[in-house]
Amino acid sequence: MSAKKTAIETPEQVVEHLRSLIAEAEKTLGSNLSEGSSEKLGVIRERLAEVKERVEEGYQVAREKITAGARQADTVIRAHPYESLAIALGVGVLLGAFLRRND
Q1: What secondary structure, in 3-state letters, does the chain show?
Q2: Which of 2, 38, 47, 99, CA to CA, is 20 to 30 A from 84?
Q3: If you average pLDDT over every residue of the chain, what do you get?
Q4: d(Cα 86, Cα 65) in Å, to the nearest integer?
Q5: Are 18 and 52 in contact, with CB atoms under 8 Å apart?
Q6: Comparing C-alpha atoms, which of 52, 1, 61 is closest to residue 23?
Q7: Rounded distance, CA 56 to CA 11, Å?
Q8: How far apart are CA 4 and CA 24, in angstroms?
Q9: pLDDT on residue 24
Q10: How far apart are the C-alpha atoms of 52 and 35, rounded to whole Å?
């Protein structure tokens, strides 16, 4: 049996990959110009810019939501430390039992 490796990327790495893909697409489009394709190239560049903007906006929104969620979790844990510990212990026991059963 071969173990499957999954690469976990940070959100910053995902955005950087998308930026590099967009830059590569722009470079490729720029090098393959013919006289009749300049209008199409303009439309494609506009769409690429829109996609890049949406990706960056989505990243910022997700980052803000994650930060707000982490702050909320911290507040709840600090307000109810024993209950939080009991819940974490219960989840750990259930997860351990589930993983052991699947082996």
Answers
A1: CCCCCCCCCCHHHHHHHHHHHHHHHHHHHHHCCCHHHHHHHHHHHHHHHHHHHHHHHHHHHHHHHHHHHHHHHHHHHHHCHHHHHHHHHHHHHHHHHHHHHHC
A2: 99
A3: 80
A4: 26
A5: yes
A6: 52
A7: 10
A8: 29
A9: 77
A10: 27
- 19: tokens are 């930026």
Read off the amino acid at residue 86: A
| 50 vs 86, more confident | 86
Q: How far is residue 28 from each of residues 16, 23, 51, 101, measured CA to CA in Å?
A: 18, 9, 17, 51
- The label of the residue with tokens 């300049």 reads 38
pLDDT tens per residue across span 12-30 = 777 777 777 777 776 776 6
CB within 8 Å of 63: residues ≥ 6 apart: 11
CA–CA–CA angle 14, 99, 9 (5° rounding): 10
* Residue 31, helix vs strand vs coil: helix
